[in-house]
Amino acid sequence: MEFYKKHHKTIKLVAGIFLLTVTVLYYVLSQTAGKEIDKENSRLAGEKTISIESEANINASEHSINAEGTETENQSGAGQNEAARIAVDIDGAVKKPAVYLLPPNTRVYQGIDAAGGLSAQADTRDINLAAPLIDGSKLYIPTQGHTSAGSQSSKASADSKSISGDARYRVGPSAATGGCGGSKSGAKININLATAAELEALNGVGPVTAGAIVRFREENGNFGSVEELLNVDGIGEKTLAKLKGEVTIE
Q1: In CA terms, which of 98, 193, 202, 215 is 20 to 30 Å from 136?
Q2: Is residue 45 situated within a structural domain?
Q3: Position 205 in a domain
């Protein structure tokens, strides 16, 4: 007690300094810890923001790629669809004459339907409604009184080409031989117009070769010369020599 009474002021001063020191240290440590927590929270928030932005950019990129891919597919599909169609000029006694893009293997009667149907003056007696339409050809439906007939003269049958369009859509012998009865009667057969059955009347031409001639013509267009028959499977120089006096392209 005497020691305390003697040194109580010093003891109180030391105790006060100790308490003050502890208080200051606690305050400093609290502030430091708070700042560290704030920094950590800020860092985590920043990482989350970057992650969200990155995900958004990835989604946007994927969407853009998908959109471009879809557009490319659509364009490709449209190009393929157009390339798969055939163009046919449908004219004459139809309600809506025009050039039509039609699916492959379209028949004459279907082409007429696409053109709005037949007009009241149409005459289809010499038109083969079941014939397949050919790309780049003309289908002309004549009116009554202007139809070519197989029994007409050679000149009248020749003139009918301008009336009925592509002769492959007409019926009767005049389509390929000018109404003269084919090669047996001395008239040359037009290899650009003759049917497979008519081509079989030629020397050295059977069903297979006749079919090959028609198929080549449909795939490549009309023959520009008789010599182009050499491009047809089954026809060589010897066969061509026999055919030259029997066929024509006019």
Answers
A1: 202
A2: yes
A3: no
